[in-house]
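Q: I'm writing up a methods section and want to include an example of the input and output format. Could you take the sequence below and give the corresponding predicted structure tokens, formatted cleanly so I can copy it straight into the document?
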Amino acid sequence: MRRSFMIPVLVLALASFAPVTCAQQGATVPAAVRGTVDVRLRLAGGEKFSGVASMRLLTSEGVEVAEHKDQIGGRAHFADVATGKYGVEVSAPGFATLRHDVEISDGQPFATVFLTMTPEVSQAAASPGARSNAKLEPTTREEAEKSLHALQQEDSIPPVQPNITCPLPLVLQGVEQTVRELVSNLDRFSATERVEHFAVHADGGVGVSSARSFDYVVVVSRSGDKWFGIDEYRDGGLDPSIFPAGIATTGLPALALIFHPNFAAEFNLVCTGLGEWAGRPAWQVRFEQRPDRPNQIRSYIIYQNSYAVPLKGWAMIDAGTFQVLRLDSELINPVAHIKLTQERIAIDYAPVQFRTEEQQMWLPRSAELYVERKGNRYYRRHTFSSFQVFTVGTQQNVHPPKESYAFTNNSNHEILGVLTVNPIPGRELHEVTITFKIPAGGTVFKVVGPGKDVNFPVDAVESARFAHNGPPGSIDANAYFVKASTLELVPDTVVPAAQ
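A: Here is the clean output for your methods example:
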């Protein structure tokens, strides 16, 4: 079925001093140095933290100097900071509050702090989340009946934590970007899809499975900057008769487009609070088709006639990345014209790592469907595996090595630098110094750990310094560590050639 959519690191640069004339003494003295503190957040796996967070800069006595409240993007910049010792405090719904010390001095006026956000997951209340569908193993009748029963439960919506206010505009702003990425990702992979079909008896039992496997590809056709259409090809074709029982179920992986800016206005969206899914803190958002807006998301095509199917349901949206983790939908009302009395859908999304391209994409991993129409009932399960990238876009999501420093050269010429990593005092370890080149426009990773570039344990790292011969701003640095890490960048340095 074709569906067309109208669709802790310290960064040191050379401080500049403005001369101040002292008329009484006839001499000049440097002005007081003012610095900046840049805070960057990430998750333990190396992903950038994009969720809602408040970041405060405090004096060593705990007095607030400045605050960036309820912002998304995982980054805050505190400018015009006087010299002294400070604390950076970060709080985010669903994550442990962090505090890290930083110092601004005459010699080190610029500081960038990398902090790793750790989820506060309640083991007692955590939902089981999506089951693993990496292997296309046949579903037994007992498993199908259990899954069907769970899908039919009216009270299956996960609970949310009390007294946590959901910032719906910020959540929708964040999920809009990830759904845009989903549209691009759908057009960049192929997979093996297994479809298992079970007839459902009046007593709730299921019949023998009828299953098919397909080579699955999605093609996104675009018209201008806004409109796009999505086609799903199975074994190279669009013929619905290849499905079990001759009933095609398409468009399920793209159901998260409810949150795409082309369609979000067609739904009433309400955030009910912060819950958990698959061990991750997640915002729970309810959706319901608006009666005064066109329905472009889901329809049934019967004898070439299209019938819109208004939906309502809920989605769990990752609080750290705004990725859609789970989406459940059902009919608002039966559709009398086609005698459709029930339809329930559950879709799980998960990150897929592509080894060959060092890429990670969030893609649909499984979808379940229960339908009652004209007195007939069936349960169907779609699973996707053996993902492969067949198109590489210009914006790859490269997954950096864990426990590493990353240096990106923003200039158009090669830069030479020396990295010095210092161990925690008291450990029987010596500093490690590495000299290396970073090509123009390139990124170089240096991994910490036994036998790695920096040959001592990760937990022994206290701080690091990277001096290079490029101008200020020519090197962008990142640190991918589970704990907070500090890295000092010193530009305009004469670096001797590597030994």
